Amino acid sequence: MTASSGRTGRPPLTEARKAEIRLEIARAAVELFVAQGVAGTTGEQIGQAVGVSARTVWRYFPSKESCVRPLFSAGIDVIAARLREWPPGLPLEDLFGPDLATGLLAATGPDGATGSALVRLTRTEPGLRAIWLQTYDEAEPAFARALADRAGLPAGDLRPMIQAAMLNAALRAAVERFAWSPPKTAPDATTGEAEVAETLRAALAIAAEGVS
Questions:
Q1: What's the longest Cα–Cα distance across the chain?
Q2: What SS3 class is residue 109?
Q3: Domain total for the chain?
């Protein structure tokens, strides 16, 4: 009886592990970008920080700027799910409380510092700015679908599309305001979560008022 001729070697990575690697690369890229700038950072350096080759980095991302995409898009699904579960009569700003701020910060780093540093870089790094805006452009249809599902409306209905556009703009403005403003107090994880929640609530309250 002959031995099996089946394939041997490492088992294929699961989708969950691939997502973990993408996030590890993203966090390493941000730390390097903050320390030495985007122009001064190479794919080899990003790979070394994670323990993978530059070839692996490029397998997951087409450019070094795009390495940060997982940090930008981490909260889209969380927010869309929250919109679908939005109880009738609950003010929009109350839907985004400290617990959501905690979840969004945890997606970018242990204390949210990685995410805040990344958003600050979008002010001065055109490549990162493009990825930042593209992420919000992709988020808007997801928010529109969630709002349409909640209201029992077709996905292409104009009302959830307009609502999603206003929500999306308010969220981006709130995050940029928080990241670009000097901290009110000394850096602290709990304080950071409270400040993010406060900024989100203020922005969404304005959005809920509509245009008058």
A1: 82
A2: coil
A3: 2
